[in-house]
Amino acid sequence: MKRTPDTRHPAPESAHPINNPYSAPFRILPGNKFSYMSFRINVRKIVLVTVIQFIVIILFAQPGVPLTKWTADGNAYYQVEKGEIVKIELPSQNKTVFIAQKQLTPKDSTKAIVPRSFQLSVDGSKALIYTNAKKVWRYPTRGDYWLLVLATGELKQLGKGRPESSLQFAKFSPDGKKVAYVSEHNIYTEDLSTGKIKKITSDNGTKKLINGTFDWVYEEEFFCRDGFRWGPDNKTIAYWQIDANKIRDYYMLNTTDSVYSKVIPVEYPKVGEKPSPARIGVVDVNTGLTKWMKVPGAPDENYIIRMEWSGPAEIILQQLNRRQNESKVIVCNTATAAAKPIYTENDEAWVATLNEWRNEVKGWDWISSGKEFVWFSEKDGWRHLYRIARDGRETKITNGDYDVIDLLNVDEKSGYVYFYASPVNATQKFLYKTRLDGSGTLQRVSPMGEEGTHFYEISPNGQYARHVFSNYYTSPLTEWVTLPDHKPFKADEDISKKIKPENKQKSNTSFFQVTTEEGVTMDGWVTKPKNFDSTKKYPVVFYVYGEPASTTVDDAWGAGTNFLYTGDMAADGYVQVSLDNRGTPAPKGRAWRKAIYKKIGQLNIRDQALGAKQVLKWNYIDTTRVAVWGWSGGGSSTLNLMFQYPEEYKTGISIAPVTSSLYYDNIYTERYMGLPQENMEDFKKGAALSYAKNLKGDLLFVHGTGDDNVHYQNAEALINELVKNGKSFQMMSYPNRTHSISEGEGTFQHLAALYTRFLREHCPPGPRTEEEVRANSGKKGF
Questions:
Q1: pLDDT (0 to 100) of residue 61
Q2: By C-alpha distance, which of 157, 210, 160 is closest to 185?
Q3: CA dihedral in degrees (219, 224, 230, 235; nearest 10)?
């Protein structure tokens, strides 16, 4: 769940994540998850990227842009350093200044512009510099753009006359003579020789007709932001138009920035509401006339989630029906607007899409001179790669009982495709390759002995890669390697020589599997207290997410830790445990991931509870001190565990939870739950509100009143249920904070202190003897 830049209704500054490690480019889900192993903060999905991804993103990322800015030939890359853009040659790693700070200083100023990212024209003669970035919901995708002519040093700002920091997704035409960009939901072109600016789309006088970008829910759930593509003829642009006029606004209140409250409207389609109608147009940049593609199906009953040019007069797109259980690849003739489906896939649950797996929108991976493309499908029960021809014929590339986690590089020259997979251990991730024609066997590229989580950025030519590795006892290590031999550029960067096996023995975190009484085997990690005494009884704190947006049990640095606890949980005497139930996106096959269909709040909760039941049999666990906590989707799971299994879970801390899926958006919820008009009973059975009357333990729940993702109404509905049923609880609302609850001075520190104090008070730390447990089983605060 995320948002896209919205200059129509920009959230107040206090409603935007500030630049700290717990917000900015990250998101939380309830879609949002919050796992320390994943740091994306959008809650209900507080999706936490792995710590490795977290670090890499912090160092290199610009949302929607590859982490590494490669040269066209893949033999070098660029990066921003100290206000300049440098070029690093590979494999020598020789560094030269490509664009100096002096070149970034306007004539009428002594202050250089600070580049956030940049792009080159196809011929390399011009650079487009992005600066002064501002957030639109999650990401800083609106800002200012400057044109630098490298030969002459001419530097000028584009979009003169447009509001400051209102330009989005600027890009050169193929011939480098024009730049197109979005500003306030319309597309503009600017002639670089004359400076003439032309508006080429129309919003019909409404702020809710969106051209070239997307509404809140498309950005949040499909990760769509950049909504236009230059045509290869330099004369046309293909773009999305989203009509959010029929989408009702959800009104948030900013009550803190002035004496009078300010209404913050967000076009937010709740589950059960029809999608924003979307269509694809091709506009003539000279005349401003748009030809709308005749894509089959009602625009308000389907989604268009990917689109790009696939020929001189042809675009290709992917369409999902509203239930997201049918996917069509459609080719459109831009001259006639005729649309022809060439590939269709159906699933009894939902069709897993590239957007869903990658959390970003990428183009098609074309091969065979544009005659075929590489595709993902779970049709045989596992996530595999296929070659799809333009006539729909398919050839399977990968085979076996394992999942392709993600595609990294198609090296057609060598005949290989590189991808992530982990056939043996679902908590880990490695680089593999196989023959692109489907004739090869699975070959591991990540070195043996480096067991954990690997992250790669592979050069376009497939010869080099930035490699980051970590596991639960090894902090992130980085090296540059050649491929396919995986040889480090420099001996002193060799990761294999830096891993210390003895740290595994010293770690008090370990991974395990538990099988429930229903035969479900789940992965988990456990962190034992320091100075552990197996004859004593310790309190256990379960960390949970449990929804289809994220896992929590990942063998990466940060596993077994708690980012909210102000202190050392292991030193204080807590056992920490996390389990990944069915329905989480682990590489365990389609059946595992889609078992949760229409059963969020039911199947995942039962798996968690029955898994915990096995953990509570461990002889060193004090079953009178059992706590559970989570954020976003994890907050929802926490409530359901406290309410549905009140005898097992004594203490709960729920942050930014969805208390009923009926309060969440249509794309995420209908994908995993179906339509409430057809499936209302399961919505009720999965809602924490339905079980609030069962609360017996100590509950703290936390919510930001400015949460545009999981609305504050979730908290108020829960309060009403608990009050109605005479239940005591503690609650903390953070004024005008978003799903990340990170904005404002001291906010995170306050939340952490609150969390820690409540946990220590209601689930006291430290070992107890059997006799002490029995003697104090009915007491609190012992």
A1: 36
A2: 210
A3: -50
In whole angstroms, what is the distance from residue 42 CA to residue 48 CA?
9
Strand order across the beta sheet in which 443-444 lies:
404-411, 416-421, 430-435, 443-444
Question: Any idea which of 202-206, 360-364, 776-780 has the lowest mean pLDDT?
Answer: 776-780
pLDDT at 668 over 70: yes
Residues with Cβ within 8 Å of 492's Cβ and at least 6 positions away in sequence, in order, are none
Q: How many CB atoms lie within 10 A of CB 650?
A: 20
**How far apart are the C-alpha atoms of 680 and 673, rounded to whole Å?**
10
Q: What proportion of the chain, given as a percentage, has pLDDT over 90?
A: 87
What does the pLDDT read at residue 285?
A: 97
* Distance, CA of 672 to CA of 221 (rounded, Å): 12
Instruction: Enter the tokens of residue 583.
Output: 């329905």
Q: In this structure, are residues 430 and 404 in contact, taking their beta carbons and an 8 Å threshold?
A: no
- The radius of gyration of the chain from alpha carbons, rounded to an integer in Å, stands at 26
Scan for tokens 């080099």, then name that residue: 464
What residue ranges in 100-248 does DSSP mark as E strands? 117-120, 126-136, 139-149, 155-157, 167-172, 178-183, 186-191, 197-199, 209-211, 228-230, 236-243
Q: Report the alpha-carbon distance of residue 200 to residue 711 in Å, rounded.
A: 36
Residue with tokens 């890499």: 56
Contact at 8 Å (CB) between 356 and 347?
no
For the record, the structure tokens of 382 come out as 């596992």
* Torsion on CA atoms 61, 457, 474, 494, rounded to nearest 10: -130
Question: CA-based angle 680:685:687, to the nearest 5?
Answer: 95
Provide the token pair at 563: 């980012």
CA distances from 642 to 166, 426, 630, 732 (A): 45, 28, 12, 18
Specify the range with the lowest mean pLDDT, choosing from 53-67, 280-294, 462-476, 628-642.
53-67
pLDDT tens, 78-87? 999 999 999 9
| pTM given for the model | 0.91
DSSP character at residue 497: G
Tokens of 62: 């610009």
Dihedral in degrees, nearest 10, Cα atoms 410, 411, 416, 420: -40
Beta strands in 561-668 (DSSP E): 575-580, 621-631, 651-655
41, amino acid identity: I
**What pLDDT shows up at residue 363?**
80
Give the count of beta carbons closer than 10 Å to the beta carbon of residue 244: 26
User: Does residue 328 carry a pLDDT above 60?
Assistant: yes
**Cβ atoms 661, 601 nearer than 8 A:** yes
SS3 of residue 147 by DSSP: strand
Residue with tokens 């792009």: 119
Quick check: 141 and 65 in contact, CB under 8 A?
Answer: no
The answer on pLDDT for 57 being more than 70 is: no
Question: pLDDT at position 24, please?
Answer: 26
